[in-house]
Structure formats: structure tokens, C-alpha cells
Amino acid sequence: MINEDPRHIRISEFDYPLPDERIAKFPLAERDSSKLLVYRHGEITEDVFSSLPRHLETGHLMVFNNTKVIQARLHFRKETGALIEVFCLEPIEPNDYALNFQQTGHAAWLCMIGNLKKWKESTLSREMTVKGHSLTLTAQRGECRGTSHWVDFRWNNNEVTFADILEVFGELPIPPYLNRETQESDKETYQTVYSKVKGSVAAPTAGLHFTPRVLDDLRRHGIETNEVTLHVGAGTFKPVKSEEIAGHEMHKEYISVSRGTIERLIAHNGRAIAVGTTSVRTLESLYHIGAMLLRHPDATDEQLQVQQWQPYEQSSETDGNFSTPSAVEALQAVLHYLDRHKMETLHTATRIIIVPGYEYKIVEAMVTNFHQPQSTLLLLVSAFIHGDWRKIYDYALAHDFRFLSYGDSSLLIP
Prior knowledge:
Layout: E1 35-40, E2 43-48, E3 61-65, E4 67-69, E5 73-77, E6 83-93, H1 97-101, E7 106-114, E8 124-130, E9 133-145, E10 148-155, H2 162-169, H3 186-189, E11 197-200, H4 212-220, E12 224-231, E13 253-258, H5 259-267, E14 272-275, H6 277-295, H7 310-316, H8 327-340, E15 345-350, E16 363-369, H9 376-384, H10 389-398, E17 409-413
Parallel strand pairs: 1-17, 3-12, 3-14, 4-11, 14-16
Antiparallel strand pairs: 1-2, 5-6, 6-7, 7-10, 8-9, 9-10, 12-13, 13-15, 16-17
């Protein structure tokens, strides 16, 4: 059952000592040679990641997040010599990722600004050559939105798209806790081998361990694979600074799920193994979207966006005409919604926060890395394994596991 009020969870209860030397600054040479901690019904064993398929039963569905990290950091130098970093977070105009990347001349993004105090009213500019075309890229700062700003980018060559500019002059935003500069090798190692859809500013790092060999081995073991898209926002690195989790605001993240994926989930009785916390958030959000549609079949696109505490409020609502739907019922409601609107893919957003007491609806097992102390990702893991996270993290610390984005992996089966 869900706690009466999970907002009062104290983040200090999810702390543990993480020495800097335990943080993996670089990946291993072979992605699938990392260690794998296997937590199964309270028991812990360890193996190598390439053996993952042997720890899973035939007939299950594994879901991956196929988002691709964009080179989202752009640097401008003012005439005074001051360096300004513009970190593209999410598209505003147009607000569709694919359309924004295709723009030729103008694109607007919500951005974080590094060295903001040095950027007053002036327009930043940078001369560049992209695909043989010389152009000037300008950045004009607009309104402030929380800790971010509206930024209008303009360039004077219609042969060049915004995606081209990012590809050539953008820098890959590796996690700040790696405490090092981005290197050329990160362009390959900080992407999953199955990444396809550009939009993330952080990698879905649980997927970094997979290789074509492991993916083939999964299929040989009778594990079906499928994909969703969640574009990871910078909020994934945002520390929880409030004493109680109620004071932490989750950033909006954009998700896409195809009709085919929903059909495969239904065929698997609404159950799946999620690769990474981003796939977890997507799948669980999908359930709550379906639950919303069962209550309100005419819900608008905006109403379908999952709000931070919606799952807890939804579960506490009781009336004689509505009972908690099964995963299959919720997924069928999403399918009916796509049918009514003649859509092949559900495009929406989520701010879901998963904390201890949350009742998982779709995810039955999880592949994930080892997360930062006092993070929302650690709360998500704790919720999944019914509070047994310390046992796992104590074991990992005692047995030389590597932590965070480039670190080792775990398979969690509650």
C-alpha cells in the first residue's frame, strides 16, 4: 500500500558514504565486462554483465530507452574575454525536438547559463564553419524561467540545421560529478549502442553496459526487447536540497511510446523488465496515463501529462464507480486513446517521482547502476526493493563495485 503522505520522507535517511575514488570517472574498455550485482528476493550474488541473460527467465519483455544524448553545451566568448556557456535543456520554439533540430535560421531553447552575471543585455555571437558553410551563430537571452532562461538562436545560412550546429560545435554534457572535462571518447562511450532519438542532456546510463553481443544473447535466451523514449533532463543531476522530499521539484521530461510497444506490454500481461530508471519512469507513467483516461476519457493532451504526486493522489481517490485498474486495463485505455485520435505514438511528458511506498504497476525487474546518495533515483530503487537498498549498497561498497554513470550495474528482482 502507498504511504498516507510520502511527501514527509526525509532525504537524510537515504545517505551513504561515497568516496571519490569509488566514482568511475571513465568506462571500462569493454562495456559488458563491468560487474553485475544480482539482487533476487533479498539474496545478493555477483557476476559479470555479459552474463545478464542467464539471470533472466525465458518469455519476459525487456524495455530500453532509445534516447540519444545531444551535444547540448554551446560556448561563446565575449569581446571582454568572458566565456559564457549556454546549456540547451529543452526546445521551446518549436517545442518538438525533431522539428527544432530541423530548423534552418532560428530555434529557441530553455537553457541554463554558465557565467550568467557576465551576460547582460548584449547578443552573443560566434563565427563557425558547419559542413563547409560559413555562418554566424547568435544567442539572445530572453525571460527567466526558474533557474533557466529562454534563449533565441539565430544563424545566417539556411543550408545548416540547428542539429548540424550542435553536432559540430556543441559539447557533450557529461555528469558534473565526474569532475573532468568532456573528452572525444565520451562522444561514443556516453551513448548507448541502441540510441536513436536525439533529445537527452544525460545518458540513460544503465544501458551503457549493453553490447550487440548481450542484446543478441538476450534474444537467444527468449527475452523479447522493445523500446520507449524518455529525453533525460538536467534535473536528473539536481540534488535534493529540502529536508523532506515534498520540497523537491521534479523537472518535466518528454516521453514517446509507440502503439507497438503498448501492444507488446499488453501481450506480456502488462509486465516488463526496465533497463534504467528512465525506462521505469516512462513505463510507470504510462500506467497512470491509462488510469487517468479510464476516469476521464476526454482528457486533454495537457491533462495526460503525469504530475509529480499524481500517482499518490490517484491511488487515494475512492468512489463507488472506480477501482484501481490493472496494468492491462490501463494500457488498453492508452491504446483506445491512440485509436480515437488516429495516432501511432503517444507523445507526452512526465514529472513522476517514485518514492518508498509507491506501488509498482508495470516494472517487475530493473537493470540499473549505483546512484548518488540522497538522490531521487535512490528513492526510486528503495521503493522497488521495499526499503532494502542499504543491503545492496553496503555490499557494493564492500566488494569493489564502481559507482554512478560509468560504474557497474545491478539487476534488481524484488
